[in-house]
Design a protein that fits this description.
The chain has 92 residues and is mostly beta strands. The protein is built from no helices and seven strands. Strands 4-5-6-7 form a four-stranded antiparallel beta sheet, with no helix packed on it.
Length: 92
């Protein structure tokens, strides 16, 4: 299932009782989809540059992590930790 804003993909298996939540980048021309993150705690992706996406990741003890990921190299992410919950993100 794709979220109503088209930014997040999630699946639930009723047979095996598991859920998957992914943030993906879609190349509209080729139709190819690239996995950016596969984590149930991640949400609210927004573009913050030509090649960067910002998303939220729930943390321990009520913290929220702001993650900035380069779509070509998602393993090279910047993480900022905030106290409290943050939602929703708006792109300006």
């Amino acid at each position: 299932m794709v979220s109503s804003d088209g930014k997040q993909v999630s699946r639930y298996s009723f047979e095996q009782h598991w859920k998957v939540s992914q943030i993906r980048v879609l190349d509209v021309e080729s139709g190819a989809s690239t996995l950016l993150v596969d984590d149930l705690g991640c949400s609210e992706p927004v573009w913050v540059g030509e090649d960067e996406v910002l998303y939220l990741k729930g943390g321990d003890k009520g913290t929220t992590r702001l993650v900035v990921a380069n779509i070509s190299h998602p393993e090279k992410s910047y993480v900022f930790c905030l106290t409290g919950k943050v939602s929703p993100l708006l792109a300006l």
